[in-house]
Model the fold of this input.
Amino acid sequence: MQVDPGEVSIANSTIAQNGAGVTVAAGGAVRLSRNAIAQNGTGVRVDMTSTARSTGDNLIDGNTVADVDGAITPANKM
Amino acid sequence: MYISSQGGVDGISAIADDYLTVDHCVITNFWDCGIKLAPSTSLAAAVSDTVVQYCGYGIYADNANQLLLAIHRCRIEYGLNAGIWIGRARGVSIHDTTVNLAGYGIRVAGSAAALYATQLAIEGGVVSNANYGLYVVDASSVSVHNMTVTSCSTGGGDENHWTHLYRELLHLQQRHGSASRSW
Done:
């Protein structure tokens, strides 16, 4: 998935075995909750102009280049 | 209904404001769009239980005014440019729909100059073997739930995969009689 830019919320989804899992660029914004992001090249890539927020309950593991490249900040879970 | 290109550009094209329902159809081998929803005035459309294959764009939707669209239980495959292309549209939902083998699986491209930001909700479904699984640009707001994206290269992440996919799609379109076009 690529957000370049735009605003995307992703929940309960599987993103696996892709060249890149979730890429956020050019001021894009993504929110992640309860997803499995695995076996991609890079799991989640966030450039300096973009934001990624997570509720902290995603499985991001087993991505071959990196699980996370960039900053992911906590999202509100209420 | 089975709709196959006999030299036509688009399978179904909405050109005026109205309501459009496409249900239980197979649409195949169109050079440009299997279903084109780009009228000059407002449109509400629903596409369900339909197969769109071997087209440049499986479903293409873009409207400067107001476009409401629901895509339900469809299978879209071998879309040389995109399986589903959403441009300016206010309320779009995609439910339990599969897109396989496409340049863009689902591309959402809003416009800051449009009357409304493009809004899309995706529930369920699979996108596989595309260059970009889900690609969102510009004034677009998308929510995704219970979706699977797999075996996509997502941009320059895997050039070899992309080259292989391009050749495979081109071969399939030529074999099925559709003209090729640029990406």
About this structure: The CA atoms of residues 4 and 56 of chain A lie 23 Å apart. Chain A has a mean pLDDT of 94. Residues 2-71 of chain A form one domain.
